[in-house]
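User: Second chain of the day. Same drill as before.
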Amino acid sequence: MGRRSRKRGVPERSGAGVAASDTSRAERDAARQRRAEAMARGETPPRAARRRRTPGKTSFEDRPPAPWGSFPLVEIVVLIALVLLVGGLALGSLAGLELSIREHFGGFRSHSALLAGAVAAAAITLTYFVTKGGGAGIAVVPVVVGGVVFMAAFWLFRQAFARRTGGVGFRR
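Assistant: Same format as last time:
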């Protein structure tokens, strides 16, 4: 078996310029303390003491300025995209619900569970806002209400489909 490879600290890549073994811990602590005091006074370190950049690597400061200045255009566009995404998902869900209502009450296919789930979700949401979120003790109330509403709505939707199809409880 060969030797296992491991990452080794390379001084020129670490950004320090000096290997940690070339200085003592006390020297490093003292230098760190001096830098912290200088920053507290508002002084900037000299150019040589700043982190050296590796040739070919870019940093955040190297980015070209946006043509529109400091206006947060990217953030606004992302917000609009998120709103459209949520709105699109909501509209798509409503379209699917409308189709299942038509198919169910037209006697084409039973969607009792889907419709009962939609009614239960509305009941859970309404109960949550009526109880104002409650606490740990009240948190179970919307779930219980949702379960009862689901079972009642499922039975009612199943009966409505059976009446529409002449007694058939479901169709594939």
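The two ends are 62 Å apart (CA to CA).

User: Great, on to the next one.
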